[in-house]
Amino acid sequence: MTLNTLTKTKDKSKKRVGxxxxxxxxxxxxxxxxxxxxxxxxxxxxxxxxxxRKSLIRRIxxxxxxxxxxxxxxxxIIINLKHLVTFKKDQTVxxxxxxxxxxxxxxxxxxxxxxxxxxxxxxxxxxTLPTSKSAAKKIKKAGGKIISPTPGVKKKPKTPTPGVKPxxxxxxxxxxxxxx
Length: 180
Hints:
Helices cover 11% and strands 8% of the residues. The protein is mostly loops. It has a domain at 77-146: CATH 3.100.10.10. The strands form two sheets. The chain has a three-stranded parallel beta sheet. Strands 1-3 form a two-stranded parallel sheet.
């Protein structure tokens, strides 16, 4: 029997900070040192100890308004081809059938899903979800087909920003070689 194999018989209680000199951690300063900004109750998360001119806040871009630290869009749930082995021949792959076959959890009903090409597919399936190029190639090679989830939707042509005029707007542009 050695000391490191003995079972623990007593647990130490947590040190209660700031309860006087008998608490085991400092007296009235409680391990925060003496005075100064960091000895007070709240220090901002971005505090660096420098003037505003060189601080982190001045170095990051200004993002205003609510939800400024939230992601811009919802990322789709990724499903690889190797997860579709539970499907039978000529079955349709959609969010509902993925939930039914327990590939996705039940709370994934309204979330976007995308199929990627990791793994092999040996069964011909009809896919109604967005797919990557490699996944589409493997699905077609196995004899399946891909139905576009939103048929007839085309990308809009890029239009100029409203309120911004071209550089020559409002003035007459002379054509070269013509004298008025």
